[in-house]
Amino acid sequence: MIPYGKQQIDIEDIKSVVGVLKSDFLTTGPKVNEFEKKICKFVGCKYAVAVSSGTAALHLACLAAGLKKDDELITSPMTFAASSNCALYCNAKPVFVDVNEQGLLDENKIEKKITKKTKIIIPVHYTGLVCEIEKIKKIADKHNLMIIEDACHALGGRYKNSRIGDCKYSDMGIFSFHPVKHITTGEGGIITTNSKKLYEKLKSLRNHGIAKRPDKNSWYYEIPELGYNYRITDFQCALGINQLRKIEKFIRRRRDIAEKYNKAFEDDENIEVLKENENQFNVYHLYVIKLEDGKIRLKLFNYLKEKGILCQVHYIPVYWHPYYKKLGYEKELCPNAEEFYDRIISLPMYPDLKDEEQDYVIKKVFEFFK
Fold it and tell me: Which end of the chain has fewer CB within 10 Å, C or N?
């Protein structure tokens, strides 16, 4: 079977983890700090706080930004639910803004959704394509809002001359290290920022809210506000460090795979590809194509599955989920996102995808339409 995505783990990755397992520190040790510094250097930010998952990163970022009960958070419905669940975790309200033809948050529709309760905008760099983040920042600055970039799909991505995660156009950036992402720590995530104040707050919040008192004994600590156990282990970070050494190779391979798909499908009237524009450098966490409608999508999905190709659909609009329906969200809230969802399918995309496997995928897609 050919999956839509998977991790690439080599012997050096395994050795890096085993080395930590034989060391004195399995968690809260030196590898966490080392991983954070290497991420800072890679994306070009001042500070980074590694945590147990991308979801934990989103939650802590919202807490550090001061999101609280009855506040509102603007985000995209074309994303994994964590991008809006983080608002619910803070007893705040997710507000969904429709998407453009690339599946990205439509910056031209944001201001209509801003109210006195709005505190944060979370643009989602869907599939590895980057939102028009400079335009979004201008809107946020005008209304005194914070921006948290959900860059879980976009490690290594670029907007103009800015690398995603450098926080040139945002207050914080969020990455995930789930196995299907660009690099993996098994589970894990990280928050990047250029604000020392946010950095110190995030460090405390990931460790139960614990704060040290320099005027007290070295063993003394206090919990001035509620935090969480969102720590990441040293052996996860060791894996992340070794994976990060290969990130440029991973990205080149993903872009090569995407280019081959693009060339194969460019003249096919049954398939529409998502193209990057001049401001975007796509790192292709996913390779998504658009079809005519949902009926064709379902037939293709099942046909490819029969042929040993496991595709996926990213994503069901978040507010369609039963939990969100119970909160009062209804269909037709974001018609572009719903039409986009009805037409999309994610084809296999990961660095270990062999040329002959990709050729097989392309061949079976063409066979279906014949």
Answer: C
Euclidean distance between the first and the last CA atom of the chain, given in angstroms as a whole number: 23
Which residues are CB-contacts of 148 (< 8 A; sequence separation ≥ 6)? 58, 61, 62, 65, 120, 121, 122, 170, 171, 172, 173, 174
Q: What is the CATH number of domain 11-244?
A: 3.40.640.10
Residues of the chain with CATH 3.90.1150.10: 247-369
- Tell me: pLDDT of 77 over 90: yes
30-43 and 234-244 helices cross at what angle (nearest 10)? 30
Provide the pLDDT for residue 228. Answer: 97
118-122 and 93-96 as β-strands: parallel, antiparallel, unpaired?
Answer: unpaired
User: Using omega within 30 degrees of 0 as the cis cutoff, is the peptide bond preceding 284 cis?
Assistant: no
| Positions of CATH 3.40.640.10 in the chain | 11-244
Question: pLDDT band at residue 220, thresholds of 50, 70 and 90?
Answer: confident
Q: Does the pLDDT value for residue 218 go beyond 80?
A: no
Contacts of residues 89-94 at CB distance under 8 Å and 24 or more positions apart, as own/partner, are 89/59, 89/62, 90/59, 90/62, 90/63, 92/62, 92/67, 92/68, 92/119, 93/117, 94/318
Residue 215's pLDDT is: 72
Q: β-strands 146-150, 118-122: how paired?
A: parallel
Angle at 107 between CA 50 and CA 143, to 5 degrees: 80
56 pLDDT above the threshold of 90: yes
Instruction: Say which CATH superfamily domain 247-369 falls into.
Output: Aspartate Aminotransferase, domain 1 (3.90.1150.10)
